[in-house]
Each structure stands twice: as C-alpha cells, then as structure tokens.
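Lecture 7 notes: from sequence to structure.

We start with a single chain of 190 residues. Read the sequence below before looking at the structure.
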Amino acid sequence: INEATTEDVINQNKESALAIIKLQKAKDDALAAIDDEMKGMTTLTDADIQLINVYKTTINEATTEDVINQNKESALAIIELQKAKDDALAAIDNEMDGETSSVYLNGLVQDNLNAINNSDDYEVINKNRDEAINKIKAVIDIYKAGASETLGTLATPQAGCVAVKVTKGDKEVILYAPDKVKVIKIPANK
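Now the structure, written as tokens:
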C-alpha cells in the first residue's frame, strides 16, 4: 500500500489485508466458542475430544469462512449432544435422591441409562430420560403408599430372580427381573 502508485492498487491491497484479518477473526471466534462450550465438561469421551480436535485443526487451516463455520458447528454438535446426555442422566439421578435404594433404582433404569449413553439421537435421549423418571416416580409413589412393608428390602434386579409387579391405581412397576411375576396391588386411595 505504501508503495502503490494508484488508488486501485491501494484498495486491492487493503481488501486483501482485511480479508486475512476477517478470516483470522472468524477462526479465533470459532475456536473460542468451542472452548467455551467445553469448559468444565468432564464427560466427553476420548474419541469425542479427538474428533473435536480434528475440527479445531481444520478450522486453523481453513481458507474460507464456510469451512470454519461447518467445522465449528460439527464440534459444537458433539458437545451439545453430550450436554443433553449429561442433563438427562442428572435429571434421572435427581429423581433418585435418597428416596429408596439407589442400587435398586439404577438396576431398574439401567436399560434407559445405557440407551442414553449410547445414543446420538435427542429423541431417544429424552424418551429414555422420561421413561426412567416415570419408573422412579412410580416406585417412590408406591413405596410412600406402604408397599415397602410388603416387599421388604429390594436388591438389584437380576436375571432369574422372582419379579414382583406392584400396581397402585394407574401406576405399575416391575421389581426385580420379570421372569416369574407375583402381583401385589395397593389400593389407589393409599
């Protein structure tokens, strides 16, 4: 620019310099957004972190804003999915909150926990969160109605154990494994 002899050369060099600055700012902003979303996250898998790092490297090497934005969105999608899983698992854990045996309740909702952890679909995550919470609420509700005196101490559901199907009004819970089912009914007004 300093050595230019025409206004066109000045403007072309100015635009080129500004484009370089704009591209670097887009890179910096994308990397900062990814790092901000990752702050405090301890549940991302090593594979997730490696993939996010690939996206970050691609951002650093990008020559267009489209490539930057595509890789930023891909990295953020991984983080957001894990946050949805973390939120679902925390909501399930909060429902347990010392009301009854966590070992038992973990066993009762283990299939739901596995489905959440293994899914990359928000609907599957939310469906399993809701199913697990409904199972836990039903057990707690039934226990508050006095079923604990009938059932005694619960253990982790295991294959081959006698199953106890407890119903209270419209709530129904299968306790232990559903091989042989013994039904205990609690009046809905309890």
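Residues 148-163, 176-184 have pLDDT under 50 and may be disordered. Keep this in mind for problem set 3.
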